[in-house]
Amino acid sequence: MENKIKDFIKEGVHYCSVFNLEDSEEGLTFISSDDKYIQVGIWNYKKGKSLEAHYHNEFDRNATRTSESVYVVKGKIVSKVYDLDKNLICEVVLNKGELIVQYEGIHEYSILENALVLENKNGPYFGPEKDRTRVEIE
What we know:
The protein is an all-beta fold. The chain has a single domain (6-44, 63-131), classed as Jelly Rolls. It is built from 1 helix and 8 strands. Strands 1, 2, 5, 6, 7 and 8 form a 6-stranded antiparallel sheet that branches. The chain has a two-stranded antiparallel sheet with strand order 3-4. Strand 1 (6-10) and strand 2 (13-20) form a beta hairpin. The protein is globular, with a radius of gyration of 16 Å.
């Protein structure tokens, strides 16, 4: 089965990727490329698979922005992604089992049905005053 990652790219800027976990191939599939500030991978393994014990080495990383992934555990939401000039890049309805990884731009969400959503960001988190800027979308 071919992975069905939907990438939203405008003028060479990769704003986000959308993926349904049910479409993942067996094994390890990374949604994000190695150069992104957030790394998102999906495990699709059969019973009995073992992953070798390991830890991640400590070293300085330079992350100048916060990226995030949002996974819908249950319910339905809509995600809108804009460029920094407030032009709509995409509007995506996300159902149970779907994931959006946001790399660039402005984003907003609306809850369409009662929802349980898992959000993941790169850190450390410095609080809302330093880490984000609210904008008005017309």
